[in-house]
Design goal:
Distance between the termini: 147 Å
Oligomer: single chain
Family: Belongs to the glycosyltransferase 34 family.
GO biological process, one term: protein N-linked glycosylation
Number of domains: 2
CATH topology of the largest domain: Spore Coat Polysaccharide Biosynthesis Protein SpsA, Chain A
Number of helices: 7
CATH architecture of the largest domain: Alpha-Beta Complex
Protein name: Galactosyl transferase GMA12/MNN10 family protein
Radius of gyration: 40 Å
Helix content: 40-55%
Strand order of the largest sheet: 2-1-3-6-5-7
Keywords: Glycosyltransferase, Transferase
Largest sheet: 6 strands, mixed
Structural class: alpha/beta
Strand content: 5-15%
CATH class of the largest domain: Alpha Beta
GO molecular function: glycosyltransferase activity
Shape: elongated
Length: 322
């Protein structure tokens, strides 16, 4: 039904979407995929679809992303797309009028490479946005390799759990930002608490799991609170980052001050030690000079001693020579 990697279509854009769909639920997936195709057509997003497994279970997800990412990184910088957007095959675009660029971090936040959401189980990687760069390449490679290098670790949600563990590493955790689920990975309302933030709201872009009636949900971006909410989110995040950086700078300055004081104390101790060594060394040198002088005097005394003896012999009574 699908090519190994099907591309629909291929214009110039900021983002590219990617997914995997195969198996017994393919008919249901087709309904969901059609919503993504319409969204891609509307905003000119190319979409890649892998229609067969490469690894067991769900591990083909990261491999599909790796393949697309390598294709992008092999291009000239000016030709590369900026972001890849992963979506599970059972997710549905409810509001095709919302562009993916809505959720991208502001230009000054070029330290953010991964946007993700959480639910009651923790990380939900059904939908996430990944920047096209080497950082992402290493992240995906680490996820795929995780079970080989950490076979003792339990992965209850397979690659999902591996991704969660890798994202907690120092190398990656500072480049990932958790976003509100209602931005791009909400759930259908279960009729419960209306304030539960996992539930989908009118006008939002995407819902996790199938939803048939979507026409009434399509609202222009300008009539939603997306832009205001996202602006406030990044402003708050930037403020928090500034506070963290200020605190870190303060700690670094205090540490530098302590190191300087410690260095000054070490210099003083060294000077004292050098002074003591110098005094001891000076006394030793004086003693050596004193001994040398004594030896010289003794040597002179020995030099004159034979002459004195000779004179003593010369002064003997001539009568003793007879």
């Amino acid at each position: 039904m699908f090519a190994a990697y099907k591309q629909l279509p291929l214009p110039v854009s900021h983002a590219r979407t990617c997914t995997v769909a195969y198996g017994k639920h393919l008919e249901g997936y087709q309904i969901a995929l059609n919503t993504h195709a319409k969204h891609g057509d509307y905003h000119s997003y190319p979409t890649y679809l892998l229609d067969h497994p490469i690894l067991d279970g769900l591990w083909s997800k990261e491999l599909a992303l790796l393949d697309v990412l390598l294709q992008e990184l092999s291009k000239a910088k000016s030709e590369q797309l900026e972001w890849l957007v992963w979506f599970d095959a059972d997710t549905v675009i409810m509001n095709k009028l919302i562009p993916l660029e809505t959720f991208l971090p502001p230009n000054e936040r070029n330290d953010v490479h991964l946007l993700y959401t959480k639910d009651w189980n923790g990380l939900n990687n059904g939908v996430f946005l990944l920047r096209v760069l080497n950082w992402s390449l290493e992240l995906l490679s680490s996820i795929v390799a995780y079970r080989s290098f950490k076979p003792e670790d339990k992965l209850p949600f397979t690659e999902h759990s591996a991704m969660d563990k890798v994202m907690q590493l120092d190398k990656y955790k500072h480049g990932a930002v958790e976003c509100p689920p209602q931005w791009f990975n909400a759930y259908p309302s279960d009729g419960g608490d209306k304030d539960v933030h996992y539930d989908y709201r009118l006008g939002q872009m995407l819902v996790d799991k199938l939803e048939k009636n979507r026409t009434r949900w399509e609202i222009p971006l300008s009539r939603t609170n997306y832009e205001k909410q996202i602006e406030e989110f990044w402003r708050s995040l930037n403020k928090e980052r500034s506070q963290v950086q200020a605190e870190r700078t303060k700690v670094d300055k205090e540490k530098a001050k302590e190191n300087k004081a410690e260095g000054e104390r070490a210099d003083i101790d060294k000077k004292k030690a050098d002074a003591i060594v110098g005094k001891v060394g000076g006394n030793a040198e004086a003693n050596e000079r004193h001994v040398h002088v004594d030896k010289h005097k003794l040597f002179s005394f020995l030099q004159h001693a034979p002459a004195k003896n000779e004179r003593a012999k010369g002064d003997q009574d001539p009568r003793r020579e007879v």
